[in-house]
Amino acid sequence: MKTLLGLLFTLLWSSAAIATKFGLYATTPMALATTRFLIAGALLYLFVYLVSNKYRRPTKKEWGPLFVLGLLNTTIYLGATFWALKYVSAGLFNLFVATNPFLVAVLSSIWLKRQVSSKEWIGMIVAALGLLIAAWPSLAGSEAQIVGLVVLGIGMVAMAVGSVYFKKVNLDLPGAVINTWQLIIGGVISLPLTFFLEKETFFLTMDYNFWGSLIWLVFVISIGTMLLWFYLLKEDAVKANNWLFMTPIFGYILAAVLLHEPITRFDFAATIFVVTGLLLSGNLSFIHLKKLGGAQSGRH
């Protein structure tokens, strides 16, 4: 079951870059990001406190951690990735997402005193070699691409810190409540940043690109996928982040089909390394694969 949830998370997480690319045809990055945060936060608020009416509000001590999570996971991480996707491909974006387990593993060993096993380290190193192979051709790109890579790096660091911080503070709140407030807080913080960064470049075309992107990002990613992410994080922060190693595989396929981005021999080689690394890390065993294959056969 955990393998199925991990694969579902990876597929949906990979699709966020694709949806964002379509949205950027219709508006500017921070405007799209901030609109997504506030709409998703408002919808979750209505569900959590008005429709279900079974969740408590955060206490005074919990507002501080929620503010930090909103700043790290929403404003900085998602804001940075939206902005960076203006300059880099969706495939390359998903490669950067897959580097997150390194940062989480290091921070977890320092901050949470979690012992990262040699098996996990070996698996991540092998997968990292695959990421390097795939990213190598893009590293010789334009200045705009380099700036995009730097912004993406900032976003990845924010996400890693947010993941470990979430585990450390161990908030006694359901994932739905945490996600609601981190989206609302992150969206409010993003409003002045959007005005400052895009006051001279802002444009908006309310076409199918805008609405399709916004609907997918709000309902599927901000609400559905983030709730799944919190569940996986509570199980184990490092293993949850290891699923991000699979994002290049799904990301390349989705980008090729929907955005017509080419898949090169570097990408194929990287895929082999990434899957091998994931297997070596112990996050996806051959037993799980057999079970998954049997379940799929049963459906057919």
List the helices and strands and how they pair.
Blueprint: H1 2-23, H2 29-51, H3 60-84, H4 90-97, H5 100-112, H6 118-135, H7 143-169, H8 175-198, H9 208-235, H10 237-242, H11 247-259, H12 265-280, H13 286-299
Helix pairs in contact: 1-4, 1-9, 1-11, 2-3, 2-8, 2-9, 3-7, 3-8, 4-11, 5-7, 6-12, 8-9
Explain the overall architecture.
- The chain has 300 residues and is mainly α.
- Helices cover 79% and strands 0% of the residues.
- The protein has 13 helices and no strands.
- Helix 2 packs antiparallel against helix 3.
- The C terminus is likely disordered.
Outline the biggest β-sheet.
none
What is the beta-strand fraction? Answer: under 5%
Instruction: Give me the strand/helix succession.
Output: HHHHHHHHHHHHH
Rg calculated over all Cα atoms: 19 Å
Mean pLDDT: 82
User: How would you sum up the global shape?
Assistant: globular
Helix content: over 70%
Which residues sit in consecutive blocks of at least 5 with pLDDT less than 50?
Answer: 284-300
N/C terminus separation: 18 Å
Top keywords for this entry?
300 residues; disordered C terminus
Short description:
This protein is an all-alpha fold and 300 residues long. It is built from 13 helices and no strands.
